[in-house]
Amino acid sequence: MGGLTGGDPSLLRRINSAVVLHALRATDCATLTEITRVTGLSRPTVEGVVEGLIEAGLVIEAAADEGTARRQGRPARRFRFRAEAGHLLGLEIGPHRVAALLSGLDGRVIGAQAKDVDESAPADERLERLRTAVAELLRRAGVARGSLRAVGAATPGIVEADGTVRLGTALPGWTGLRLGERLSRSFKCPVLVENDANAAAVAEHWKGAATESDDIVFVLAGLSPGAGALIGGRLHRGYGGAAGETGALHLLGRDVTPETLLSTTDQPLHPLDEQAVAKVFAEAREGDLRARAAVERYIQRLVHDVAAMALALDPELVVIGGWAAGLDDVLEPLRRELARYCLRPPKLALSLLGEAAVATGALRLALDHVEEQLFAVEGATARR
Q1: Helix or strand (DSSP H, E) at 305
Q2: What number of other Cβ atoms are within 10 A of residue 74's Cβ?
Q3: What does the pLDDT read at residue 64?
Q4: 287 vs 281, 294, 295, 340, CA distance in Å?
Q5: Which of 26, 171, 174, 220 is deepest in the core (most CB within 10 A)?
Q6: Rounded to whole angstroms, how far apart are CA atoms 13 and 10?
Q7: How far apart are CA 177 and CA 164, in angstroms?
């Protein structure tokens, strides 16, 4: 906050603005009296802050509610947070599809768009498909590109702080790609890039199976297995952003790649995509012995991935996403096997967000960035 001091009136105004804005965003609308009661600020202070927020475009006076109007006199003025004052995007860039979610400043999704993409598509083609999906989404929602306040993007691979993909074996031409820089050419707002499993962990903690837990691991069982972890409610990326890269565990042994584990023949499963894997799972449910053996091998590999994360981090909860979330009764064999490996086996749950988890997490990252701006001095309130 630069050279501001505890007695600086501008700091006090910022604190009060953050407190009032936070109170308004937590409800549909509120009167000045209600805001005063919730915030503990004086009535004149609340009036001044609300007028300032109206001028900034973040608050608007709500229409009179006939149902709550008093029988005599004018009804009290009511105010609401303008979620439509800006918009956020959450992007997923995966092996077989790109997807985009659009929300207002409250994080409520108002539109979605997804497009299939070939797993062998070069980086330029994949990014062009993403740009097309975003353009269609904004046009359909009637949202101007200039209204975007932040964009979150999630993709497989080890992602550095500046949005460069240091290692990305799941997508052609991805290793070394300056993804953050490439995406920033399409937007005039901040762009935040994160690993897909990390983003999914954030999403499950926000809106999915982990809303009641702060120490969690999300296992993304997909083309490139990986995991994301939250410790004390905060994303744990590791020193270089490589935390949770359980896909590298196959290097410890031979013939344990997904292509080999899920094969029902003597050859690796190719192409390894969602359709091929779904077929193996369906055949296993129908009683095919080779398919059942393939699924059992895959579950055993999943157990090793989960056990590695559980032993290292001791999470309260492990959320299973990706292909494994579609397996019948996958949690019971996982519980049984983890009891053999872990000193304290974690709780297990299936993802509640499904294929939307990655894009939802990317959207939450964008929302976090905007909230840091809107409520930057909220922490100062608690210290005073």
Answers
A1: helix 289-313
A2: 8
A3: 66
A4: 10, 12, 11, 27
A5: 220
A6: 5
A7: 6
* Residues making up the chain, counted from first to last: 384
* E strands in 175-316: 191-195, 216-221, 226-231, 234-236
Distance, CA of 48 to CA of 52 (rounded, Å): 6
Query: Residue 55 belongs to what H/E stretch?
Result: helix 43-55
Give phi and psi for 98, each to the nearest 5. -120, 145
Task: State the DSSP H helix or E strand holding residue 31, giving kind and residue range, or none if neither.
Answer: strand 30-31
d(CA 143, CA 7): 41
pLDDT below 50 — which residues of the chain?
1-7, 66-67, 69, 71, 254, 377-384
pLDDT of residue 137: 98
Helix spans in 56-194 (H): 123-141, 179-184
Q: Is the dihedral of CA 317, 364, 169, 280 positive or negative?
A: positive
Q: Which residues pair with 234 in a beta bridge?
A: 231
Contact 130, 96 (CB under 8 A): no
pLDDT of residue 378: 40
Compute the distance between CA of residue 133 and CA of residue 117 in angstroms, rounded to an integer. 11
Question: The dihedral of CA 278, 279, 284, 290: what is its sign?
Answer: negative
pLDDT in tens, 317-362: 999 998 777 666 778 888 888 888 888 899 999 999 999 999 999 9
Q: Dig out the tokens for 185 from the structure.
A: 């050419």
**pLDDT number for residue 5:** 41
